[in-house]
Design goal:
six-stranded mixed β-sheet, globular, alpha/beta, 25% strand, single chain
């Protein structure tokens, strides 16, 4: 479904050019959940920004079903590090914001949002403000807002990084289940190796800057298991240690 084809990214600085990404090539099959991990500053978030059109590559192209991603932005949903819920808007007004911007607040789309709120236990909070919700509930709201426009591809940029560890475990389980149930293709950027192994079909490991694809791990043996179930699997530590060593060298 998604193809990163020889992506390059170079920035200009007072001291000359800085190469952030170099010859990034990998693909994501439809319905798969892929995580990207790598050292701090290796260009993980930049790669998502390029895919969603927030930044332009210096070379290469991202394709969505064979079409340049820049021509298919309406088919992508982007979830940044913070939930970005507007504190003065109700939960309902927040989760329907994307529909409002796109002029899609018709009965069919609004009914979809109602269904998502009911399905994920948030219908009773539709009139609350974000400050009245827990961190985990806010993240679920942010994902529902992203799902409201029915994108085929979800791009998740460290969406759990602001949560405490216990909440993070529960929310990653919830979000993983939601994405699987909605049958979405997803790419997650994370610095947490355990998170990547517990949620993904594949883990793409990037090198230190300039970011290159160092390895791709196939986790298909975990198919059908929840993140919490994967963490208890006897092979979990093997994948964790392998990725850890790749990041260290």
């Amino acid at each position: 479904m998604v193809q990163f084809d020889h992506i390059q990214k170079t920035y200009q600085s007072p001291n000359g050019e800085i190469c952030a990404l170099k010859d990034i090539t990998f693909s994501v099959a439809e319905g798969d959940f892929v995580s990207i991990v790598g050292p701090s500053g290796c260009g993980k978030s930049t790669l998502l920004s390029i895919a969603v059109g927030l930044e332009q590559p210096s070379g290469g192209q991202v394709y969505l079903d064979g079409q340049p991603a820049s021509q298919a932005l309406s088919r992508m949903g982007y979830m940044p590090q913070r939930d970005e819920l507007f504190p003065w808007r109700s939960i309902w007004a927040n989760v329907t914001l994307g529909l409002e911007i796109r002029g899609q607040k018709d009965d069919a789309h609004l009914q979809r949002v109602e269904t998502l709120l009911n399905r994920y236990g948030l219908s009773g909070f539709r009139d609350k403000l974000p400050g009245q919700l827990s961190g985990g509930m806010r993240q679920r709201c942010a994902l529902i807002r992203t799902l409201a426009t029915d994108p085929g591809l979800l791009l998740l940029d460290e969406p759990f990084s602001a949560l405490d560890y216990q909440t993070r475990l529960h929310v990653s389980d919830d979000i993983h289940a939601m994405i699987r149930q909605e049958k979405k293709t997803a790419i997650l950027v994370t610095h947490d190796i355990s998170e990547s192994v517990s949620m993904s079909d594949q883990v793409v490991v990037l090198s230190a800057r300039p970011g290159r694809v160092k390895a791709v791990h196939d986790l298909s043996e975990f198919k059908g298991l929840s993140p919490m179930e994967r963490r208890e699997h006897p092979h979990f530590a093997r994948y964790f240690n392998s990725i850890w060593k790749e990041l260290e060298h």
